[in-house]
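Notes for week 9. Today we move from apo structures to complexes. The key idea is that a small molecule is not decoration. When we ask for a structure prediction with flavin mononucleotide present, the ligand SMILES becomes part of the input, just like the chain. The input block below holds both the sequence and the ligand string. Read it once before you look at the output, and try to guess where the molecule might sit.
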Amino acid sequence: MQKDYAIKIGNLQLSKPFILSPMAGVSDLPFRLLNRSFGAELAFTEMIDVRSISYKSKKTEQMLASEAQDTPLGIQLVGNEPEFILKALEVLSTRTFDLLDFNAACPVRKVTSRGKGAGLLKEPKKLNSLLKIIVKHLSRPVTVKIRTGWDRNSINSKTVALAAQDAGVAAVFIHGRTKAQGYTGSVDYATIAQVKKTLNIPVIASGDIFSKVLAEKMFNETGCDGVAIARGALGNPWIFKEMLAYHNHKKFHKPSIDNIALVMGEHLKACAQFYSPDKGLIRFRKFFNWYTKGLPNARLMREKMCRAKTMQEALALIEDFRANTKSMPK
Ligand SMILES: Cc1cc2nc3c(=O)[nH]c(=O)nc-3n(C[C@H](O)[C@H](O)[C@H](O)COP(=O)(O)O)c2cc1C
């Protein structure tokens, strides 16, 4: 990476172009803080429905929970009803956050069938009017998350991105796949490049940023201003160190087993503290699966972790992992 990769999103100055992409069921406060400690800068809450913010449910409070070190923070909203969007903005007006991202990318049927998430890709005019409402009522930068289109016969992200820019958004996040692709199939670098060429606001790309090589490919092939990392950070907060090493032309060393065990233990304790020991343990199980992906005894360890009933048992299992796993496969 040769050029200066600092990005400005509205009044929000980021020193690095590596962003932690929002993930439903994953991007809670412990996960964000962990990834920040490894170098992630901007991070997002998971997607929150504007209706549930209006109802102020306990689950929503947990999704919105933040603290002083959890910055810069983006809150991601999904919805399509102006009255609930306005109500959500009113509820959020007392909270501390740096940016609001509006989701027009979620491919889940329950969401799109109600015209929300990626459903809005079919209605650029409606998306434009919803974004105008948000921009008008919020004094912080507003961004939008889109996909390349609904399916391969309707690649319309240039139109959608222009509609968003016209509404006054400060940046566009684009996942280089169609709604129909979900999370599989190849990333459409060419379409992201067209979106980047068309807009005069920053474009942040996501899709398969699993390594520095793939990050470099994304930058080189699309000219994007930044990359947002999602699955590459699951069980792998080191990806942000890898990106920074790449950024600074330094060598990246993969974590040792001791290091992975240490981070898992910290992550588990943070989940227990944030939710409760019981709920935190349940929440942590999927992360354990991701941390141990590709390791020799992973299946057996996961079964044991699934059966672990207490924090002590889970921590003992992590110690067992540390003591008995020789090294990461190459
Ligand atoms: C488990 C999971 C949950 C996700 N939830 C959200 C979400 O709430 N909001 C969003 O904009 N994107 C969400 N995404 C999409 C990611 O932010 C990202 O755009 C996409 O996964 C492509 O990046 P990747 O290839 O690095 O995973 C989710 C992805 C995954 C895997």
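The chain has two domains: 7-247, 257-324.
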